[in-house]
Design a protein that fits this description.
This protein is mainly beta. It has helices at 2-10, 280-284; strands at residues 29-35, 42-46, 56-60, 71-74, 77-81, 87-94, 97-105, 111-118, 121-129, 135-143, 148-155, 166-175, 178-190, 193-196, 200-206, 211-218, 234-236, 242-246, 261-265, 278-279, 288-295, 298-303, 321-327, 333-341, 349-351, 355-361, 367-373, 379-384, 389-397. The strands form 7 sheets. Strands 12, 13, 14, 15 and 16 form a 5-stranded antiparallel sheet that branches. Strands 3-2-1-29 form a 4-stranded antiparallel sheet, with no helix packed on it. It has a 4-stranded antiparallel sheet with strand order 4-5-6-7. The radius of gyration is 21 Å and the shape is globular.
């Protein structure tokens, strides 16, 4: 109890408890909205994503203490794992308020990617500096029921090159007590500019001892994953095969001469399949960001249009982003005729295996959840978000 009170004092309670709607609902979905005119970001709880007039509840967030993309939802609780702070926090929706349940301090920040070992244990990977200023990967396993750190250790990765010294830990997975990391290296070339090396590395680590057992090099593309706390870049299909994306385009990896691509590591295999690659950039002529599985061997990607933006300064604000359906077996990529979207690093795709629901901020300043029928390929509008919305940055299923 003393720990909770102390941490509540040290880390300002980030969620406002002001009730926007008097309605008591049992929400199925939550959407995180970045609002206009510097008003607080908010969470919008909804019973349905269909445009049926269902009940909603909106709760503002204090943007001075939280980045609106940082929360993780799991089994009735919200968790905050930030790249800006070394405190891991747990919240629960109670009535019309999000209430702090517990918090624990971590030694590190700069968290980039997570996976769930099981329903109770979160594995999170971050960067840390060791002797000589070289960045290495650090792994935490947190039991979110007890809110305790179960395991933590630094994984010493061989330093790749003197030219590229900054580490990007893009993906983490665990299978049969083998921890698997996908990472690359980059360097800064200016205040808002950087470039990534031309190689991705896949490291296999024995999880019981944190001993590095193998490194596989990938030269077909670079910059695996992204900030996976924010946006999905990997999944396991019904057979347990692990699919993931690399994205070296201007928004993230910034090595645009190499392609955005989808790769696969088959269940039970320690190495990435060198005979499998879907070259997205070759197929559509652009880079893509975000990968969401929608069942039956199909996935959604979100791609830029390089003819519509100038550079990184207006990349996020231009209505340019398209959504496409990828057949993971044949490699065919089909454009979905939604309105163009804006904004980067959005976790805004969900599927019930019949429909794909995608939250889009279009050029008419409408903020809607659109529906795509996977069988008929018909599109339709779902729930419309408040007019104060600027970006819909997250959409999570709560059940």
């Amino acid at each position: 109890m003393k720990r909770l009170l102390l941490l509540s004092f040290l880390v300002t309670f980030i969620f406002s408890c002001r009730q926007i709607s008097p309605n008591k609902i049992d929400p199925n979905f939550v959407l995180c909205l970045f609002n206009k005119d510097e008003s607080p970001s908010s969470l919008l709880f909804a019973e349905s994503l269909d445009d049926d007039g269902g009940t909603t509840l909106q709760i503002p967030l204090s943007t001075s203490h939280i980045q609106e993309r940082e929360y993780i939802y799991k089994n009735g609780f919200f968790y905050r794992l930030s790249s800006q702070t070394n405190v891991f926090s747990k919240y629960q929706l109670q009535g019309s308020s999000l209430v702090l349940i517990d918090s624990i301090p971590l030694k590190n920040r700069d968290f980039e990617t997570i996976t769930w070992k099981d329903d109770s244990n979160l594995i999170a990977a971050c960067r840390e500096n060791i002797v000589g200023g070289k960045k290495q990967a650090r792994i935490y396993q947190i039991n979110v029921e007890a809110m305790q750190i179960v395991k933590e250790n630094t994984i010493i990765l061989p330093f790749a090159t003197k030219e590229y010294g900054a580490l990007h830990v893009g993906l983490v997975d665990i299978e049969n007590d083998d921890l698997w990391l996908a990472y690359s290296y980059f360097k800064s070339t200016g205040k808002y500019s950087y470039t990534t090396s031309d190689t991705t590395y896949y490291a296999t680590i024995k999880y019981d001892s944190f001993k590095l057992t193998n490194i596989q090099k990938e030269t077909r593309s670079t910059y695996p994953g992204g900030f996976n706390i924010i946006q999905s870049y990997s999944f396991k299909n019904e057979a347990g095969d692990y699919y993931f994306m690399t994205n070296p385009g201007i928004a993230l990896g910034n090595n645009p001469n190499l392609p955005t691509a989808i790769f696969r590591k088959k269940k039970g295999q320690k190495l990435v399949d060198q005979d499998y690659m879907i070259n997205i950039s070759k197929s559509i002529g652009n880079h893509a960001y975000g990968l969401w599985y929608v069942g039956n061997g199909k996935a959604i990607i979100r791609n830029e249009q390089k003819k519509l933006y100038t550079d990184f300064s207006n990349f996020h604000a231009v209505y340019q982003f398209e959504y496409r359906l990828v057949d993971l077996k044949s490699g065919t990529i089909e454009k979905i005729p939604f309105p163009l979207d804006k904004g980067t690093q959005k976790e805004n795709v969900w599927s019930d295996k019949t429909y794909v629901y995608i939250a889009i901020d279009d050029s008419n300043d409408e903020h809607c959840v659109w529906k795509y029928n996977l069988q008929t390929k018909a599109i339709s509008k779902g729930i419309k978000l408040p007019p104060t919305t600027n970006f819909i940055v997250r959409m999570d299923y709560l059940k």
